[in-house]
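Box 3.1 — From sequence to structure: Sigma-70 family RNA polymerase sigma factor
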Amino acid sequence: MGQTGDKELISLIRTSDYTAFEELHQRFWPVLRKLAYRKIGDRQEAYDLVQEMFIELWEKRERLNFGDELNGWLHKRLWFKLSTYFRTKGFREKHLEDFRIYAANEVSAVQFDPMELRDIDAYYEDLLAAINKTVEEMPDRMREVFLLNRNERYSVNEIADKLNLSPKTVRNQLDRAIGRLRKSTETYNPTALELLFIIWLIS
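Predicted structure (token representation):
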């Protein structure tokens, strides 16, 4: 089962093939748990959150729109779980410090009130849903380039080599993808702090 492609794996899971679901779990669990731990800072809570996410996937397997690319889809699913986690449980001092360090590296002389962070609400789910929808609607090549850059952390040159494209073409595709994302989210008006938090959450 280890060589099963994403589309076939999704098809098998939809038919309640539990072996396929176990393969999905084994293939993606380590990186998702690592990401959750990096954001939450508690091993047990990170474990529980990712485990809960996989349980939900199995329970809702027949009606979920997985898309064609599991790695990116699962990462977005985890973003939603993390967003909910922080809204319901708030930030601990470690989270605040992690975000403070990130913000300080992104913007000079950042000032923020910890209570403002605790008040971040369902706004994020709506925004991330808009982002997810925009990515899914991108032309195939644009989406492939964008996901390689965003989810796999490939550089422009690495993407060019992998897809046999020129670096200029890759940059153009990324610019257009970002343009689409900006347009799809232009009705959202986050504060500078909220925007930084979104970026920190999904990085």
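Summary of the box: The chain has two domains: 1-88, 90-203.
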